[in-house]
Amino acid sequence: MKRIGILTSGGDAAGMNAAVRAIARSAMNAGLEAYGINYGYKGLVEGNIFKMESTKLDEIVNRGGTILYSARYPEFAEKETQLKGIEVLNKFGIEALVVIGGDGSYHGAEKLTMHGFNSIGVPGTIDNDIPGTDFTIGFDTAANVATEALDRINDTATSHQRVFVVEVMGRGAGDIALWSGIAAAADAIVIPEREYDIEAIANKLTENRKNGKDHGLIVVAEGVMTAAEFKEKLDQYGDFDSRAVTLAHVQRGGVPTTKDRVLAARLGDYAIQLLLEGKGGLAIGIHDNKLVATDIIDTLENHKHQTDVSLLDLNDRIRF
Amino acid sequence: MKRIGILTSGGDAAGMNAAVRAIARSAMNAGLEAYGINYGYKGLVEGNIFKMESTKLDEIVNRGGTILYSARYPEFAEKETQLKGIEVLNKFGIEALVVIGGDGSYHGAEKLTMHGFNSIGVPGTIDNDIPGTDFTIGFDTAANVATEALDRINDTATSHQRVFVVEVMGRGAGDIALWSGIAAAADAIVIPEREYDIEAIANKLTENRKNGKDHGLIVVAEGVMTAAEFKEKLDQYGDFDSRAVTLAHVQRGGVPTTKDRVLAARLGDYAIQLLLEGKGGLAIGIHDNKLVATDIIDTLENHKHQTDVSLLDLNDRIRF
Amino acid sequence: MKRIGILTSGGDAAGMNAAVRAIARSAMNAGLEAYGINYGYKGLVEGNIFKMESTKLDEIVNRGGTILYSARYPEFAEKETQLKGIEVLNKFGIEALVVIGGDGSYHGAEKLTMHGFNSIGVPGTIDNDIPGTDFTIGFDTAANVATEALDRINDTATSHQRVFVVEVMGRGAGDIALWSGIAAAADAIVIPEREYDIEAIANKLTENRKNGKDHGLIVVAEGVMTAAEFKEKLDQYGDFDSRAVTLAHVQRGGVPTTKDRVLAARLGDYAIQLLLEGKGGLAIGIHDNKLVATDIIDTLENHKHQTDVSLLDLNDRIRF
Amino acid sequence: MKRIGILTSGGDAAGMNAAVRAIARSAMNAGLEAYGINYGYKGLVEGNIFKMESTKLDEIVNRGGTILYSARYPEFAEKETQLKGIEVLNKFGIEALVVIGGDGSYHGAEKLTMHGFNSIGVPGTIDNDIPGTDFTIGFDTAANVATEALDRINDTATSHQRVFVVEVMGRGAGDIALWSGIAAAADAIVIPEREYDIEAIANKLTENRKNGKDHGLIVVAEGVMTAAEFKEKLDQYGDFDSRAVTLAHVQRGGVPTTKDRVLAARLGDYAIQLLLEGKGGLAIGIHDNKLVATDIIDTLENHKHQTDVSLLDLNDRIRF
């Protein structure tokens, strides 16, 4: 093997650039050439590909977003387009592809693998919802951004005796809601993985007011409903002087945390080590604190991310 | 004079606690007693008042929100209630009142002054929209929070070649929009102080795309319209793959910046120095980098905050 | 069991307060009373003990330091003093003790357990050097503070083509150095767990300069030597326009990260669950992402923290 | 005028890149060409000069350090070298030079002006010690970094009842010490502009301990002495369980604050507006909140930065 390609796809996540650096560097230091592919699968098919240079890589380690850009490209669901992509990769002499991204990005890598082109998926998404790994690159940063926002909102909630309903990202997984909610002492956390009981939540808030906590914080994962919708439902059970806030895209970019950068370094290097051993067609990740690689087809077809729902019970035990 | 009272009122702003500390300490160190009044004018009328202790004050200097709480209290617009408030103050032996807050809070202090009770208004609000001062306590922190959020959003905008419309706080003043917009290299800033031309903004974005900048950032002050409304209008002029984001309450709380804390220290101490000189009935502030005190009645009746609209022209000269 | 006691001891670490809250709340919500012990073992022996109230606990979740304070107290190494402590605990009707702290703090808990008083050790220290857990409360925050400092220093190193030698905390463990060093793209990381070769490091820096990276970053754990000492040695091998910086105490306090707060919540609650099950005399922690409890005497006598030294090899593969 | 040159010189400061962007953009949008000069005056003399492109400028607005680099170059004190520099500028067709930097950098611009080459000095240094301006680009960021560090240290000081002596940057000016010291509730601030009385400081700390504040914070500007030296002196007056910390280079780089970026935008654009009006040989700055331009020769020869020493008296009135 002489050349590997790298692309990022799907929603950007903090730490993607640290992963790009680790993949490229680990490849270069092992004697390979690393090619960057701009704009995800779209750039792949269009041949928007360049040879990466080592000198510029260290300075991207702390930058949000992705220097390789991302782009929507539904056309890549078609076999013809996938084969076109492999043709382009062959033309550039690229023998293996490392894809950083979420669910959709993995499916691209899966298809390329099915057509015989060696691809490895590196989990990069803020939602933490990819099978084959306990944590994705970008989740820790997103959770910290959400927590910091909740801290700020707690200041206002306390000052004004209000209840805030805050919607955090997480379409299919409640991980950001759980981690930031626990970290910010939320009174209730609402996630897609478990039924919520709005009457019980409202009763708890009313009871809290009697017992000396006259403000509240409810964290809702976007996959359940919007903050505005939840607030409207809640208001039917009492006058909580409630406010709805949607954190939205601020959770996505920004300077990655140490944990996300170290995870990016470990996974990025691991992808290259596997390729050097002749392996491929893998989804890689971290499980029980150890690097793991699983068959990308089996992982995507037969497994699902398991949110640690016990954190919800934990929150019930430590809240006011 | 033996005793002064302190209250916070209106929306909380980062740095209010640093102001509370400076007022209380400056009073204590000059031999006065400082009384904290909880829940703004409501607590004043209800006698929710306590003697402050020096030992606990240093640790609030970096905390968001207000330890004296705030509360809505429209009843204070009535003369009867105002006189009731003065009665309570007299009962506690409080001879002068320092009020930290925004426009509405100032009006309370104005009324008390009109009824003969010495009051001083300290400008504390994130919107920077109070007459009699160039800068309010809380504005610098809010602007920094907004800028950091815009930085994050720029990462995503760049990665995905999108246009983001971001709504920042500022009901009557465009200051947060202007400062954060310039700081984050916005392509357009929309403020209540000046007519906007949405067609011109759309054309600029289209032109940018031709000239090599394929993403964009538009900062809209909430006083103009919501981000969603602006996005909808914008989309009529082209396909910008646009997104609307509302920063909302995250701009309010949080750890205050150095500038807000130093401003709070200066203004808080200045209020006490003026009271010690026998002065009162004043709105205080900072103008051209100097502490200033103006008649609170005249200031509120005859003056308006002047946003530095030249910053909009500046942004036009330095944007892409 | 009716009453549990909580104390913090040793160097403060971000997240200790979140652990105090979780322990106290989990106890209260299970029907127990929680007593706070001020100033560590000193306060224990002196009876500086108070009943904790639920209402004030949520607001400490994001505060650095420890609201229970800490104090040096070498006297607690003596059996007599330990028995005096148990006497005091009995007097207060406290039946079990949860100690948050580092190595020294654990030894106190071990001794109390040996004398028959049920104690549980919760790992709280920035150094990540406690046996029985993969991660300690405070480590993630400290690593992030160090990384942010290294990011800043990289800006200056790049602008001025300098080599910076930065000393981070970690007397017996290189974990902060490893994590922050990888995160900040260090050219070399020097830790107590492995011999360093200063000539090799100097040669690498010289070689880097030839290959296009004209600045450098070396992260040194304090357990190896000071930054100033390392710089002096390094300068004997070439003119690197080097600077020595010691991050020192800034790594200790501050707002805890989400990860540290969630870890504090999990471990704090776990301590109470174990006590409710009638267990005690335990060191608790997180291992391979799962909560674990081990005999505190065996853990302290027979085990040592294992730094993941493979991170050093990883850094060698991904650096310039 | 067709072409202007931009260089940064002296110690890097956060916001320098925002200034580079504003200067270049304002020039480009006015129809001029902007040339970047790498490595300060060294690069100028060596002809390390390139035409800047508009597309890459927006993304540097939030980056610390300087993309134009800096370098020591004592040779530029010699007339011969200065004339060589002008020769190079003429060769590149550059008709005016904008220099961002501190005292030393201004002297270079002064000399070029004396030799007839139109130069403008933009104040960029963290120390806030340049005549002709109330605030320099980089000061607000450095003060905020210092304040955040002091906040962290306060957590530890409070937890352990210690006194911390913290050395902040500021060789000739106490501005960082004053602003961060007031912001972090320091018990004493020691600056080069005023004599300090160590006995009085020690007595105050001892008295504080009696009155209920058992920890302390002393901020020392590096221009007075090192933290270690101050601690040693202090320890002669009592047992304060004191610690010395030097913040050092972390104050320099990092993401610039909103205030520093807006100041950079205003000053950068102002430099170009002046050049377009045919003016030059100027030091520009902000005074009493307004942009000002003064003769660079007169400013450097006859004026000195005036630290607002009244802040020291303010701190004495609001401290414990």
From TrEMBL, chains A, B, C, D:
Pathway: Carbohydrate degradation; glycolysis; D-glyceraldehyde 3-phosphate and glycerone phosphate from D-glucose: step 3/4
One Gene Ontology term, aspect cellular component: 6-phosphofructokinase complex
GO terms under biological process: canonical glycolysis; fructose 1,6-bisphosphate metabolic process; fructose 6-phosphate metabolic process
Species the sequence originates in: Ligilactobacillus hayakitensis DSM 18933 = JCM 14209
Reaction(s) the record says it catalyses: beta-D-fructose 6-phosphate + ATP = beta-D-fructose 1,6-bisphosphate + ADP + H(+)
Gene: pfkA
Protein name in the entry: ATP-dependent 6-phosphofructokinase
Alphabetical list of PANTHER family matching this protein: ATP-DEPENDENT 6-PHOSPHOFRUCTOKINASE, PHOSPHOFRUCTOKINASE
Regulation: Allosterically activated by ADP and other diphosphonucleosides, and allosterically inhibited by phosphoenolpyruvate.
Subunit structure: Homotetramer.
Binding site for Mg(2+): D103
Family, per entry: Belongs to the phosphofructokinase type A (PFKA) family. ATP-dependent PFK group I subfamily. Prokaryotic clade 'B1' sub-subfamily.
Broad class of the protein's primary localization: cytoplasm
Required cofactor names: Mg(2+)
